[in-house]
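User: I'm new to structure prediction. If I give you an amino acid sequence, what do you actually give back? Let's try with this one:
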Amino acid sequence: MASSVLEAEAPTVVGQDFTVAFLVDQSPDEVFDAINNVRGWWSEEIEGDTDRLSAEFKFHYRDFHRSTQKITELVRARKVVWHVTDAQLNFVEDKTEWKGTDVVFEIARKGDKTELRFTHVGLVPACECFEKCSGGWSLYAGESLRELITTGKGRPVAKE
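Assistant: Good question. You get back a string of structure tokens that encode the predicted 3D arrangement of the chain. For your 160 residues, that looks like this:
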């Protein structure tokens, strides 16, 4: 099914935190299931459970980025929150910029559509990694996740 993006396809910065939002024809349940299929849209090399409250999973991309996320909120068809408990970003001076931040997925019905609002709380323009990290989230949360929701196939980082 077709999808549309709220306003422009470009990400927006809301209250300083990086945010991407879009509308799709799929149900809130389908959007929720796609979010929790992290290997289907972010990385095929995710280690750990990604669909259970209090579970932790690890992401890594070569020697550039490693992070551990703990699922702190999981409300079916409404909200998912990951708390970044550890991070190492080897392309910036403060390698722990993500540590203590939250990745929030909010799902809501908007007429006959479903809105997904992705916010990385703590990823702000003052962060050294903002440009590269917001570009990565635009690709993975804004495009790959949307494609997984609308077509059943995302574009995650492939296994090496």
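You can read the tokens as a compact description of the fold. Here is one thing that stands out. The domain at 3-151 is CATH 3.30.530.20 (Alpha-D-Glucose-1,6-Bisphosphate; Chain A, domain 4).
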